[in-house]
């Protein structure tokens, strides 16, 4: 389980990390990065545009960017009970005008193009203040939008003045480097996460609250825009595999790194404020990494190495002349020396691959022979797919 800093650090460590937090801290000279230090994780302190420019090209499988929103807040906002609403008032969110914001956006997106593999994908999260500008710029730069995801918040802040709708969602753009790029989409894993129903582009998730929300000793939020780990879990699961490298140029409290590490991915976080970077580092140090490949490997059957049924016969797992059955014992086929099957029933004589004969005996246009045909073992009927899995486990 991924946990928040207040919960997972010893009180001494937490105190030290919190003391290092200041809203505007002096940028530190970026640490040089070599290809050797890509595995595991690193927080790099400094300006992400400069740092990405200095990183080796094409190192990242995925970039998650949560850039400044450019909220342009005017005046103080209070709740009906006159308590003050803590918005994003830090200097990192302030830009002279839209042109300055657009120019900054172009610069960091150029950095992303440089560090991202050709097969990698970019995620950018934003609100109505910035996401349309970013979307337009990244399209102009050749990125290809794959989806926009609406993160609908279960617990949004009300519109206290009652002058507009409650702003209850943020938008994430998911994009590849260009239109024809191939990219990772763990479709089946996402479907499994959603109880075998295709995952949609509207995600209902709560804001980051409770134990997960990092707070200082006074109970004040350490960072105004800490993202929920559940959101990053889904993002990382969508577009990376075990061992891939995830880069976040606007690291903040390191939510992306915490989730990436927990899921066995390598990560690089870039953060301008050394106080936030220190918090991120301490937070991630406490995350337990899952290393068991059986838990982490989410490759779908379609992506798994192909095993022909003939290999099952060659390996002696089913002998030529042996019988296969459907799970109800209604149909029988005999295995031939070349891995094809023969069968006969009221529909005729059938000969061919496990799939062809499986379909023919049922009078169907198609059939997945791996799950239709079974072999006898210790008085039980077991699907031949188990033998394919055994070969995969031993071979790959
Ligand atoms: C919206 S917050 C990201 C919050 C983060 N996703 C989290 O869950 O904690 C943006 C962060 O980017 C940092 N930042 C702003 N401009 C930057 C730049 N040019 N280079 C690196 N970091 C920057 C800010 O200090 C801030 O912590």
Task: Explain this structure.
By secondary structure, the chain is α/β, with parallel strands linked by helices. The protein has 14 helices and 14 strands. It has helices spanning 5-8, 11-19, 48-54, 98-115, 131-140, 187-193, 229-239, 255-262, 274-285, 293-296, 309-314, 354-362, 369-372, 385-395, and strands spanning 41-45, 60-65, 116-126, 144-153, 169-176, 202-205, 245-248, 266-271, 323-325, 332-335, 341-345, 348-352, 374-377, 380-383. The strands form three sheets. The chain has an eight-stranded mixed sheet with strand order 1-8-7-2-3-5-4-6, sandwiched between helices. A four-stranded antiparallel sheet has the order 9-10-11-12, with helices on one face. Strands 13-14 form a two-stranded antiparallel ribbon. Helix 2 (11-19) runs antiparallel to helix 9 and helix 8 (255-262) packs parallel to helix 9. The relative contact order is 0.13. Mean pLDDT is 87; it is low at 1-31. Residues 47-48, 66, 68, 92, 223, 225-227, 250, 252-253, 255, 270-273, 276 line the site of S-adenosylmethionine.
């Amino acid at each position: 389980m991924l946990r928040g800093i207040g919960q997972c650090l010893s009180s001494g460590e937490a105190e030290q990390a919190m003391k290092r937090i200041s809203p505007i801290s002096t940028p530190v000279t970026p640490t040089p990065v070599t290809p050797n230090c890509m595995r595991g994780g690193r927080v790099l302190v400094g300006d992400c545009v400069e740092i990405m420019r200095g990183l080796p090209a094409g190192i990242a499988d995925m970039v998650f960017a949560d850039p400044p929103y450019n909220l342009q807040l005017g005046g103080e906002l209070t709740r009906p009970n006159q308590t003050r609403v803590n918005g994003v008032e830090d200097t990192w969110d302030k830009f002279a005008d839209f042109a300055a914001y657009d120019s900054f956006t172009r610069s960091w997106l150029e950095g992303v193009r440089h560090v991202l593999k050709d097969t990698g994908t970019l995620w950018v999260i934003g609100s109505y203040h910035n996401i349309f500008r970013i979307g337009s710029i990244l399209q102009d730069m050749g990125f290809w939008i794959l989806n926009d995801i609406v993160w609908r918040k279960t617990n949004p802040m009300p519109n206290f003045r009652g002058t507009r709708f409650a702003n209850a969602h943020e938008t994430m753009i998911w994009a590849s480097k260009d239109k024809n790029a191939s990219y990772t989409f763990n479709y089946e894993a996402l479907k499994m996460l959603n109880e075998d129903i295709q995952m949609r582009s509207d995600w209902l998730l709560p804001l980051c609250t409770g134990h997960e929300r990092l707070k200082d000793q006074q109970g004040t939020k350490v960072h105004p825009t800490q993202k929920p780990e559940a959101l990053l879990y889904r993002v990382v699961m969508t577009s990376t595999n075990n061992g891939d490298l995830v880069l976040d140029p606007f690291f903040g409290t390191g939510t992306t790194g915490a989730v990436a590490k927990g899921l066995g991915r390598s990560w690089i976080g870039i953060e301008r404020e050394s106080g936030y970077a220190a918090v991120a580092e301490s937070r991630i140090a406490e995350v337990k990494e899952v290393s068991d490949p059986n838990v982490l490997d989410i490759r779908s059957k379609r992506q798994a190495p192909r095993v022909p049924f003939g290999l099952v016969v060659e390996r002696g797992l089913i002998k030529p002349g042996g019988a296969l059955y459907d799970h109800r014992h209604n149909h029988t086929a005999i295995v031939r020396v070349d891995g094809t099957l023969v069968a006969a029933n009221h529909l005729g004589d059938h000969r061919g691959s496990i799939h062809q004969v499986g379909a023919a005996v049922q009078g169907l246009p198609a059939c997945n022979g791996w799950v239709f045909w079974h072999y006898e073992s210790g008085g039980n009927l077991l699907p031949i797919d188990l033998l394919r899995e055994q070969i995969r486990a031993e071979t790959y």
